[in-house]
From TrEMBL, chain A:
Transmembrane segments: 111-132, 144-163, 305-329, 335-358, 863-886, 969-988, 1000-1016
Lineage of the species this protein comes from: Eukaryota, Metazoa, Chordata, Craniata, Vertebrata
UniProt keyword Nucleotide-binding present: yes
Parts forming coiled coils: none
Subcellular location: Cell membrane; Membrane
Protein's UniProt name: Sodium/potassium-transporting ATPase subunit alpha
Record key words, sorted: ATP-binding, Hydrogen ion transport, Ion transport, Magnesium, Membrane, Metal-binding, Nucleotide-binding, Phosphoprotein, Potassium, Potassium transport, Translocase, Transmembrane, Transmembrane helix, Transport
Gene3D superfamilies membership: Calcium-transporting ATPase, cytoplasmic domain N, Calcium-transporting ATPase, cytoplasmic transduction domain A, Calcium-transporting ATPase, transmembrane domain, HAD superfamily/HAD-like
SMART domains: Cation_ATPase_N
Sequence similarity: Belongs to the cation transport ATPase (P-type) (TC 3.A.3) family. Type IIC subfamily.
UniProtKB/TrEMBL annotation, chain B:
GO annotation terms (biological process): potassium ion transport; regulation of DNA-templated transcription; sodium ion transport
GO (cellular component) term, any one: nuclear inner membrane
Keywords per UniProt: Ion transport, Membrane, Signal-anchor, Transmembrane, Transmembrane helix, Transport
InterPro entries assigned to the protein according to its UniProt record, in alphabetical order: Na/K_ATPase_sub_beta (IPR000402), Na/K_ATPase_sub_beta_sf (IPR038702)
Region (Disordered): 1-84
Protein name listed in UniProt: Sodium/potassium-transporting ATPase subunit beta
NCBIfam families attached to this UniProt entry: Na_K_ATPase_bet
Family listed: Belongs to the X(+)/potassium ATPases subunit beta family.
Organism: Vulpes vulpes (Red fox)
Pfam families, per the entry: Na_K-ATPase
Quaternary structure annotation from Swiss-Prot or TrEMBL: Associates with a SMAD7-transcriptional complex. Interacts with SNW1 and TOR1AIP1. Does not associate with known Na,K-ATPase alpha-subunits.
Signal peptide: none
Amino acid sequence: MGKKTLEIYSVELSGTKDVEQTDKEDGKERYRGLKNCFHSKKDHHTEKLKKELDLDDHKLSIKELEKKYGTNIITGLSSTQAAELLAQNGPNALTPPKETPEIIKFLKQMVGGFSILLWIGAILCWIAYGIQYSMNKSSSLDDVYLGCVLALVVILTGIFAYYQEAKSTNIMSTFNKMIPQQAFVIRDSEKKTIPAEQLVVGDIVEIKGGDRVPADIRLLSAQGCKVDNSSLTGESEPQARSSEFTHDSLLETKNIAFYSTTCLEGTATGMVINTGDRTIIGQIASLASGVGNEKTPIAIEIEHFVHIVAGVAVSIGILFFIIAVSLKYQVLDAIIFLIGIIVANVPEGLLATVTVTLSLTAKRMAKKNCLVKNLEAVETLGSTSIICSDKTGTLTQNRMTVAHLWFDNQIFIADTSEDHSNQVFDQSSGTWASLSKIITLCNRAEFKPGQESVPIMKRIVVGDASETALLKFSEVILGDVMEIRKRNHKVAEIPFNSTNKFQLSIHKTDDPNDKRFLMVMKGAPERILEKCSTIMVNGQEQPLDKSTAEAFHTAYMELGGLGERVLGFCHLYLPADEFPETYTFDVDAINFPTSNLCFVGLLSMIDPPRSTVPDAVTKCRSAGIKVIMVTGDHPITAKAIAKSVGIISANSETVEDIAKRLHIAVEQVNKRDAKAAVVTGAELKDMSPEQLDELLTNYSEIVFARTSPQQKLIIVEGCQRQNAVVAVTGDGVNDSPALKKADIGIAMGIAGSDAAKNAADMVLLDDNFASIVTGVEEGRLIFDNLKKTIAYTLTKNIAELCPFLIYIIVGLPLPIGTITILFIDLGTDIIPSIALAYEKAESDIMNRKPRHKKKDRLVNEQLAIYSYLHIGLIQAVGGFVVYFTVYAQEGFKPNILINLRVEWEDSNVNDLEDSYGQQWTWYQRKYLEWTGYTAFFVGIMVQQIADLIIRKTRRNSIFQQGLFRNKVIWVGIASQIIIALILSYGLGSITALNFTMLRPQYWFVAVPYAILIWVYDEVRKLFIRLYPGSWWEKNMYY
Amino acid sequence: MRRQLRSRRAPASPYGYRYRLDDQDEVNQNYLADEEEEAEEEARVMVVPDLEEEEEEEEEEEEEEEEEIEEEEKEEEKGQGRPTGNAWWQKWQIVNEYLWDPEKRMSLARTGQSWSLILVIYFFFYASLAAVITLCMYTLFLTISPYMPPFTERVKPPGVMIRPFAHSLNFNFNVSEPDTWQHYVISLNGFLQGYNDSLQEEMNVDCPPGQYFIQDGDEDEDKKACQFKRSFLKNCSGLEDPTFGYSTGQPCILLKMNRIVGFRPELGDPVKVSCKVQRGDENDIRSINYYPESASFDLRYYPYYGKLTHVNYTSPLVAMHFTDVVKNQAVPVQCQLKGKGIINDVINDRFVGRVIFTLNIET
């Protein structure tokens, strides 16, 4: 067993330098998902894709290729040929995902939500006027005005929502701007630089290290060319490319380089075989656009809420239409009642408020490095119950760092924190002196010049990940490495290659008295050990005996078990007599010894977790969010990182762990005992959906290792089958289907590809997992606060609706007009309802489970009932008291008001008697009616202040929450009062607005009701707190 | 295993199974969220689940609409295109069962007990709300005097109205066709019944003209009213000419000023009435006779003490006898009140201190 694992390690280690072996092992598997994706597409589409995949360009000889594409590898295409092909096949660029035209987006806002109801209201107004006009040519234009006002309201709120949407999309457009790419191409026998967009099939292009591959190309010749296929496969291991045909599959053969991958080093010449959307990446991107975007939870909630409110509005409207008709009202009047009921019932300002609230949160989240592309996604994070996270870059720092050292038979821990600030291991030993020398000298990585002022850890390095880690490590400890290298002049070097698995260099020493050459070597530990006959302990060379070899193996196993990449280091001072100063080393003939060296030590490296991540994972856990790690890395590395960040908690074991502990076979372990599971892509491949479901259900801590990005999609779908709201992080191009499929796709801002960012709903600007957690917190808070906002807004609807119902049934003069209602909905109530978005959480929202998608609704029965039938009714009563007070004090006592409607509204009746026998002209009555509107308006406004205060909390007392903690609430209250004052006293003389100057005392009539609302709600909350789980809580907690 | 257990006890209807699935989802959810519950959950599954627990679960089911939405969502999720008719039938079943579930004796997802509790609570809540509003209105009436309204600004300055009034201020009639003016006569006769001399002499006192008829004393004392006899209107009283001049093309129109409690024309000047052509040729109306001849409302009819104590108060009238008006064309007439403290030019209110009507007398 031990032996076997060792081999795996060596594969992993060699992976540092050469990908060949890993490629062979899991290359097939890595692309499997990709093919699967293709096959899962619809019939004719599949056929087409299959055909594309069946391309045999990699198998063809150069001559055949030339013939096929009508080109010549020396002269390239002619300009005319190229122009023809360009016209025929289109530019070499990915078609951007189909954007909904702006006008459609705008129209959607115009008819979405309540707009349609309001349009109906407006149209009914015009119809009513039409009927009136046909009966009486001089009928008043009031209905036309009202219709226009309603239409205006719809259009304005529509424009507002559209503007908000557009603003949040604009943030993204900065990301979409791609730097125009240039390609080096041979055409008309000349080397030219043209924009990559103009490449056509058959073009001969040259690529060099640092370039992005401009199209899918078949390599014709290559010199040390390595590409980073991470945008395609998610693996960031560099892969060698050559002109040889090595594999039947187009995806795995070495002589094809793919569009949008990066050439890391070397140069190559190739022929373009696919451009634009026909490239492999293009096909994946179009696949992503084929995956339907899931509706966000908050969109579902808002839709649900709109359904409820619209349902209530329409049913009450129709009910009272029937009542009105059966009460012998004219149909025309009944229509006008219907309009009033609709306007009263629809919270016109609410959707705009929700948009503002969401964008406020989006802004707040952007400050915390979560850039939200789709406003509605703000809340989605809050309801997330599973996060499928990448490892590299998200959970880890995305850079190799020296984690452990082994020398003098001891393991030392190196500091892996972000700044490497304190390296505390013992540096006095002579072995360390030797080891540090090897680390410094046997290293080809270099800092890019001109970075002296940059902190070491942030400097840009030319070289691969391991060498960079070693370079930075030694720079931190020893100081100027480049200077040391200069003093120890390098005379010969064998770079790393996959056959010998070591790197060697020979140096002159900086000791002027020592004329010996120093040979330093590093590489796969077992290979290095094979070459050694001695080992250095405490600065002294000792023969390498069995016990020291044993110690080496133990250390190697231990470090490997931590998922770390281990390198062995050894050196040899070449005897001066055999190798005089003038000796010429020949690295091809190897005219120097490479065995019987002196083993110095081991160094292990890991991509360490970000320091904030363990805390964030703990937070997720207490918030009931399951964190699943999905990585392309080796299971052991994945598990080690998972353990160190807490995705696998310290005391939980996998089935394999239990088996190992109890010394029994894996099959004998009771699977229920294991909480954690590490599943490899290969295992996942063989799982049926049911087995995957079972896995996801039964294990609380899951790590998927060695998975292809395509398998992410399978995992996401599995999670969604559990009814979970799934967040997925991703950066590669072929993460994009998974990002789209997820309820919320989170792309990495730094490492992420454009395709991933396009597919995602959210972009993490700092690639940091911890930012997701703050996002979750904000999302949950916004859900709670939206609940409060909606409860606040719905309440007054009853107070606006009741007047109409009473007006129809009892025949009182109309207590509140339609325009006045609009002034409440879109005037006094707007700022307060936004202010609720600033409310702090009542309790630790990160300590409760994510909401259940189907059970914890934004607007539930309790909320609607409590708002409508409790507080709403109190408000209506309060409003009526103000109304009756005004009328009674002017001479119309309530008893005389009953059934007065017809005479009251007859403009020919100009001597209507009140309770005192006084006679009123029509206009005098109208003015009194408007005073009544204003009074009712003020009554509602005063009570809405109380409503606003009580909505600050749902369970806690206001005094626990703090009356003054949320300052914006007070801004809201002030705005309410000021707007009301302006309407009454400022605009009181404009008759069209139906406001009048109200006597000051009427402002206070509703105050007792406001106090009643507050007291009533405090009592409700008190009982909820006193009797949790009781009947009261079930019915009264929203 | 859990799934099997659940499905075995699922009712035959596919909808029932759907619910079980939902429960399953919930269980999963808990599972995912809280591994502590794992053991507990398991124990529950092992034990035969009792009906009690299930009822509770059912009770938490949500509104009709929501279920429908859920249903739709489910449908989409599953993506199994069932025949639409079947889906509608299922929906109907769900609604039906929601309204009345015979198995659990529940209506609208509540048991009888739950319903009665709800009703009792709401009864008390609304009863106390009603009590509060009653109390408020009661205290309101305590503060308002039944004899004198607290504010009279809105009803001042007085409005003006004319008789006959037939829901229109256009007097169109043809002298030779009695049918066209008969209803004016009937209306005037009816209106003047209360002004019959006999009635006025019986009910009201003859108080001295030219001065306010001020009756001091307690607010709640009954007040006497001054006589305004029909005969004061002379030619327009309908006593001599029962057609009020309509038969001769010389119509009488009575003008009255709206009653306002406590209103007194200022400085002892009675309010006068004057009419003229509103727009057009002033000579369209060549003469108007006013009755009483002073064309004013005598001061003795003021102040008005309100309906409650001033029961027999008779509003004074001024009759306008349009003796010579241009015939066969519409003549707009504006009659205004004139006097100190009288406003007759409010733009919005064409009945304050004035009245505008048209005469179109055809011959």
